[in-house]
Amino acid sequence: MQELHQMLNRHRKYIFSLLALYCIGWGVTEYKTIFLGLILGTSISLLNHWLMIKRISRFGDAVVAGQRVRTLGTFSRMAWAVFAVIIALELPDHFHFISVILGLMTSYIVIMIDFIIQSLIKRKNGEER
């Protein structure tokens, strides 16, 4: 489980960096609705990623203890995504809909990029030994 939490910490750093860039973009450019949409979607994406890691951790603990395994909370994560979409649809003057959708996918993109980086690092360390 330690690796899982290390991975979450790396992903959180990447996503917070992206959120900082989005905030700068919101403040500096005239594309305020696009950056607000990215901020909203990415924030919900980070929340869903954190919820998933938390549930996976509990899931692993329950399996080790031989207890009944609870769900991974798919419904609650979908509800958060629907909540972000509803906000974007209700407030189109503030949030760009497509940007919210792209923001919701941010954690998955970060996971894939981090996987590639970690694979390259492991391959490089394996070749040096």
TrEMBL record:
Lipid bilayer topology: Multi-pass membrane protein
Major location category of this protein: membrane
One Pfam family recorded for the sequence: ATP-synt_I
Keywords: Cell membrane, Membrane, Transmembrane, Transmembrane helix
Sequence intervals crossing the membrane: 12-28, 34-51, 72-89, 95-117
GO cellular component: plasma membrane
Record's subcellular location: Cell membrane
PANTHER family: ATP SYNTHASE PROTEIN I
Protein name: ATP synthase protein I
Organism: Oikeobacillus pervagus
